[in-house]
Amino acid sequence: MKLTTREFNTLTFFKLPSAWWTGVRLKSVNEKEAITTAKLGWRNQNPFKSMFWAVQGMAAEFATGALVIGYIRSTGKSISMLVVNNKANFSKKAVGRIHFTCVDGDKVEGAIAEAVKTGEGQTIWMQSVGRDSSGDIVSTFDFEWSIRVKQKK
Predict the structure, then answer these.
(1) How many whole angstroms separate alpha carbon 66 and alpha carbon 88?
(2) Which of 39, 65, 147, 148 would bridge 97 by S-S if both were Cys, CB 3.0 to 4.6 A apart?
């Protein structure tokens, strides 16, 4: 995996400042899983004193996207990635620090390998689950990623 948490968080600061300023951070990433966090604060709360759904969505997407980026980098090929669909479920008020975990590394590895092998675009559904400090699920996000090897011109 050619991606570090420091590199990803620096990229966030420069390329996605809204995520940075609302406290979204990548905490860990390896071949199998990625974990992001966001802590409730005045910059990311809604009027009900819980974390705004969009901040949860950014953290959840980053957990899935970090795995995709890591595998793309490991191929050394020019591959595009794009979220083409998503679903979300909110089951509990998000307060405190929320950890979003995606364990779909094997799915990503397979989809990217297939895209490289066939030259055909692939789509893959990935899930990121947000848990509070008690371990209770506060939200679940599903993202459909499109992966395509860029053609040389």
Answers:
(1) 19
(2) 39
pLDDT in tens, 77-89: 999 999 999 999 9
Q: What total of structural domains would you count in the chain? A: 1
Query: SS3 for the chain, per residue?
Result: CCCCHHHHHHHHHHHCHHHHHCCCEEEEECCCCEEEEEECCCCCECCCCCECHHHHHHHHHHHHHHHHHHHHHHHCCCEEEEEEEEEEEECCCCCCEEEEEECCHHHHHHHHHHHHHHCCCEEEEEEEEEECCCCCEEEEEEEEEEEEECCCC
Boundaries of domain holding 82: 5-149
Q: Rounded to 5 degrees, what are φ and ψ at 94?
A: -90, 105
The model's pLDDT over 34-46, given as tens digits with 9 standing for 90+, comes to: 999 999 999 999 9
CATH code: domain of residue 73 = 3.10.129.10
pTM over 0.90: yes
